User: What shape does this take?
Amino acid sequence: MYGSLLAAPNMKRINLDHNATTPVDPEVRAAILECYQAGYVNPSSPHASGRQSRRVLENARERIGELLGLRPNAPQTDHLVFTSGGTEANNLAIFGIEHNRNTTLLVSAVEHPSILAAAKELENRGLPVVKLPVDADGVVSLDKLESLLTPDTRLVSVMAGNNETGVLQPLAEVVSCCETLNIALHSDVVQVAGTLPLSFRELGLAAMSVSAHKFGGPVGIGALVLRHDLKLKPLLFGGFQQAAFRPGTEPVAAVVGMCRALELSHATLACSTARMGQLRDQFEAVLASELPQIEVHGSSAERLPHTSNIAFPGLDRQALLMALDLAGIDCSTGSACASGSSESSHVLLAMGCAETLVNGSLRFSLGRQTTQDEIEWATREIIRIARGLWSQSAGFKSATGPR
Assistant: This one.
């Protein structure tokens, strides 16, 4: 079916799936390799080699905290708890901030699967869970939030930037609503960290989750940031590391890699943000001019500069993804954590999108390394392939009669 749609067999691949993971920066690889060559040992060991490893680890922790805008001074020092990534950080926030049957958890309807699945598990255990609806662009309803918050609400979780659509949430207003009732607000900032300016202290959050492989760092290392006064129950037991919030041997090389990746992303933040935004806008404009039937989800809202979720009405998202894959373009049907599922996007459904739009939607996400030539080549191929699939679909329907 796809033979006539394919590009040349030796065409290099174009990565438009940076929201799933970003390439590890060469300087990050070098920093990690240097750690392994230095032979750092368990940083909890009391001997000289262990103490040296501890110094390297804590220096990296302090630098990451500085870049993320943590309060550095005792007695109000915020906590930076290293995890295996964003999913663990989100789970630690949802399960670790103590609940009981008289308290309520509130999450937005467009959260990452690692938030929604954790919330569902708490609901299965008898904890009331409330979903905060969003509008047609995927922005949370502040009016609904005010009416849903009660003195029994223990925790609210609203992500900063959506991983599927790139839509940014009004965190400042959400913080203000939560502060009125002294409610803790957690935010998954995984897609924002390293892409837009970010300060935990200035945002006024109680907790936030980050993941290194979303900004040029290694897979397998992330963090949950905790306000200085927030109590947390661990998910893991059997060690004293990280104030027992998250026991286990800290991975020195991975933490150093995360630190270097965050430094590099911050060094070019303004420039790369503007450039990715321009390329994303060009990408959408060219596609819209040649394929007027497409729709860009969340286009009326503020969005991350590198994310574009586009509906190709009447096309099957899996068929389109396969055709683009064979042509050398990497993209996705939504969250990478749910990419193995055939279920429709919960984000687009929460936005009230029609079935034909949900079924034909793909996510394209750029990175700091994305070039003008890649965007131009990708748009040409997407236009060619989409037109071909629409033509084949029309021909099939014509041959088989009304369906």
Observations:
- The longest helix spans residues 372-400.
